[in-house]
Amino acid sequence: QVQLVESGGGLVQAGGSLRLSCVASRSIISTRSMGWYRQAPGKQRESVATITGGDVTNYADSVRGRFTISRDSAKNTVYLQMDSLKPEDTAVYYCNRVDQWGSSVWGQGTQVTVSS
To answer: Whole-angstrom Cα distance, residue 7 to residue 116?
Structure first.
């Protein structure tokens, strides 16, 4: 089974930037979609940004214009560039992969903390 490893989280001041990376143990070329989700304490996990195999992207309204999802298929890696961070962006960020058969795999998560 494919494994996903996230990195790039940390502590940043409001207005700052971070770039998250998600490295897959297998090729991401034939995936249906990959995405970033987040879960804040006491809240449900929510979708942040997704990218399909055809490079169609989708963003949550709360991050559109501030976050950018991209992928490098040669490196089996998906990125989430996060700019103009706000305290409400604080959460554990998870990478997700959905293969062509609809099977979903999650990474272990990386903490993002934005101080005011």
So the answer is: 23
Pair type for strands 46-52 and 4-7: unpaired
Beta bridge partners of 4: 24
What is the distance between the alpha carbons of residues 63 and 76, in angstroms, rounded to a whole number? 24
Q: Give tens-digit pLDDT for 90-102.
A: 999 999 999 999 9
CB-CB contact of 57 with 79 (8 Å):
no
Determine contact, residues 59/67, Cβ cutoff 8 Å. Answer: yes
Structure confidence by residue, pLDDT tens digits, 55-66 = 999 999 999 999
In 3-state terms, what secondary structure has residue 74? helix
